[in-house]
Specification:
The structure is a single chain. This protein is α/β, with parallel strands linked by helices. Among the domains are: 240 residues, 3-Layer(aba) Sandwich (Rossmann fold); 124 residues, 2-Layer Sandwich (GMP Synthetase, Chain A, domain 3), CATH 3.30.300. The relative contact order is 0.09. It contains 20 helices and 27 strands. It is globular and about 70 Å long.
Length: 560
């Protein structure tokens, strides 16, 4: 396996495409004025070598950590490649963190420098203030804010223009550390997950193997590159398969960016797939849409029109991950002609774990083991254990946590509880550490209850809580569809939803009440991760002082 995979090491693939298809367009970057800038493979390689020359002349020790603090862009990719070509380790940072979190990552990683581009926070000044004074700053062309206190920085275009390409860059070995990815942290401080170059190669190779990607394929890079999902699905996938990458400017231009890219491979999270459906149903009520799609003459045209409006008309591999997708939502897309394929993995195994292949999906299962992955269930607690060629080296500076995460025979503890069927399909039933005990001494696993609630169109996100209370209850963030309905209507719908969900739960799991909270759960306010996973601890911290008063109320639907 090693020799075959080593041909797909990231820098070797970058050089391969630059030599064999130098003039082919690799990256397409939208600009602030609405135009786009295209980068060929040869240009990306040349620019990365020029920036690598600047980094090399700093004379930092080999393997120094250099961070990238920016929204996705073509320059994000090139900065990553330059860091590697200069012999260093890249440390991506979410562009939506607080200043304190930025400082924590940079100090924990002992970063020598940070590339700063466009940020995605409501308090960008605080983020920039979190950069320690001794960390060198290089501003990408997408950077919009000046550094605080008049601090000096290097400018990307000037530095590239001032340097010749780095001659004879050292080939990075497969076992060398390539990157440290800090977990998005649904609980506690983020951990720095170290990956070597071979794991990076495997992550892209496993995707190509599963979905037969070629240079004719296209992806849109918009999920944070600081997260393993887009790092694999766009960056590593593109290097292995030679496919073309488009970028998105942000939420305001996302639809236009998607329509321009017309991706053939598209990865998203269920929350965004739900928003697509809500946008269509806002114009065409579901009963009417269902009738239109069922019409043999009208159906094909309607499908094409809807997918074209969404920018998904060219998608041949529609995928989702990070959270379960409600079965009715999967069926909705299947009716449009998109066979939704679930992919499953973790930062700790570079997302090389399980995936669903076209035509073989089973609703409720995350798929079968990926390339050379072994999986088994821990008989002690039902947890999925995975041994993967994408497995991490370990947590940076934390051998104790590394030892906790891996079994004596080398299997990674995923934290997900479930079962494996005879064909290797894995079904998740909960998280090993999320179950809580009610006042009656019974344990409740919230994930499956949350999945049932989130399947309803009025529920944007939810969190089941109730540790120490007689019965569990659920906090709800309503969807835009619910916001347009009157409160009486919403009350009736939610009350019926509670009863419907409770009928399939054991008595100790049944929800006492549903609590509608007024706040949006966003990355900015820290209630969800950048991939929209609910931060349970943060929600309980925010609303915990009200739990007792809610428990004393008679209503089954409470508006906080």
């Amino acid at each position: 396996m090693s020799a075959a995979i080593d041909a797909y090491l990231p820098l070797r693939r970058l050089a391969h495409w630059a030599q064999t298809t130098p003039d082919a367009v690799y990256l397409t970057q939208p600009l602030a004025d609405g135009a786009v800038r295209e980068f060929t493979w040869a240009e990306v390689h040349d620019t990365a070598l020029r920036m690598a020359a600047h980094l090399a002349e700093q004379a930092w020790p080999a393997g120094s950590r250099i961070a990238i603090l920016s929204k996705n862009s073509a320059w994000w990719y090139v900065a990553d490649f330059a860091i590697w070509l200069a012999g260093h380790v890249s440390v991506p940072i979410y562009p939506s963190l607080t200043g304190d979190s930025v400082r924590y990552v940079l100090e924990h990683a002992e970063a020598q420098a940070v590339f700063v581009g466009q940020l995605d926070s409501s308090d960008r000044a605080a983020m920039l203030a979190g950069i320690p004074a001794d960390v060198k700053v290089i501003r990408l062309p997408t950077a919009r804010e000046a550094l605080p206190d008049g601090r000096a920085s290097g400018e990307w275009d000037a530095l590239v223009a001032a340097h010749a390409p780095l001659p004879n860059p050292r080939d990075r070995g497969p076992e060398e550390v390539a990157t440290i990815i800090y977990t998005s942290g649904t609980t506690g401080l983020p951990k720095g997950v170290m990956h070597h170059f071979r794991a990076m190669a495997v992550s892209g190779y496993a995707l190509k193997l599963a979905y037969n990607a070629t240079p004719d394929d296209r992806v849109l890079s918009y999920l944070p590159l600081a997260h393993v999902a887009d790092r694999v699905a766009s960056e590593m996938h593109s290097l292995v398969a030679g496919l073309r990458v488009w970028f998105s400017q942000g939420l305001d231009t996302f639809t236009a960016d998607l329509q321009r890219a017309r991706p053939t491979f598209f990865l998203s999270v269920p929350r965004l797939w739900t928003k697509f459906r809500q946008a269509i149903n806002a114009r065409i009520p579901q009963p009417q849409l269902a009738a239109m799609l069922a019409d043999p003459d009208q159906g094909p045209l309607v499908r094409k029109q809807i997918l074209t409006q969404l920018g998904l008309d060219a998608v041949r591999v529609p995928t989702f991950g990070a959270a379960p997708m409600p079965p009715d939502l999967q069926q909705w897309y299947l009716d449009l002609g998109l066979d939704m394929l679930e992919v499953y993995g973790m930062t700790e195994n570079m997302a090389v774990s399980h995936r669903t292949r076209a035509g073989s999906g089973r609703i409720g299962y995350v798929g079968q083991p990926s390339y050379q992955v072994e999986a088994r269930i821990d008989p002690a607690n039902g947890e999925l254990l995975v041994k993967s060629p994408g497995q991490m080296i370990g947590y940076y500076k934390d051998p104790a946590k590394t030892a906790e995460a891996v079994t004596d025979d080398g299997f990674l503890r995923t934290g997900d509880v479930g079962s494996i069927d005879a064909d290797g399909y894995f079904r998740i039933t909960g998280r090993a550490k999320e179950a809580f005990k009610t006042a009656k001494g019974k344990y409740v696993a919230p994930a499956q209850i949350e999945n049932r609630l989130a399947a309803h169109g009025y529920v944007e996100a939810c969190c089941v809580a109730g540790s120490g209370f007689a019965q569990p209850f659920a906090l709800l963030m309503l969807s835009p569809a619910a916001a347009t309905a009157g409160r009486d209507t919403v009350n009736a719908v939610l009350a019926a939803l509670r009863e419907q969900v409770n009928t399939v739960l054991d008595p100790h799991e049944r929800l006492d009440r549903l609590i509608v909270v007024p706040d949006a759960w966003t990355v900015d306010n820290g209630l969800v991760t950048p991939t929209f996973k609910v931060k349970r601890a943060e929600l309980e911290k925010r609303y915990g002082s009200q739990f007792q008063s809610w428990a004393e109320q008679r209503e089954t639907v409470i508006w906080a």
